[in-house]
Write a structure and sequence with these properties.
about 110 residues, mainly alpha, 434 Repressor (Amino-terminal Domain)
């Protein structure tokens, strides 16, 4: 199937935009990742880390996050790699600790 230049450009643009975050857009290929499940699991992990450290969502303002942004992170909204690094810095943990295991149910067959 040949795509018109305009459609091909839109597809490339979507991929470029998504490559700047931890999301790759919607794909219809077999074995693809369910991004929504990944970010939901990531949000739950971040919430758990916050609570283990005795912080409220409002406390996260001291780490440079707005309360609204933090709520969105914990709700499972897609985040950028920069945001993930900021979260790791705030909790003084490695990325692996935050993301380990969050991919268990995200693959479609």
């Amino acid at each position: 199937m040949i795509l018109c230049c305009k459609e091909e450009f839109r597809n490339q643009q979507r991929q470029l935009i998504c490559s700047g975050c931890l999301c790759a857009g919607k794909s219809k290929r077999r074995g693809v990742v369910d991004h929504a499940k990944f970010f939901k699991a990531l949000g739950q992990r971040v919430k758990k880390l916050r609570k283990e450290r005795g912080h409220s969502q409002e406390d996260m303002i001291a780490f440079g996050f707005s309360a609204r942004h933090w709520q969105q992170i914990e709700a499972g909204r897609p985040i950028t790699m920069t945001t993930l690094l900021r979260i790791c810095d705030a909790f003084k943990v490695r990325i692996a600790m935050v993301v380990r295991g969050t991919d268990k149910t995200i693959y479609h067959d």
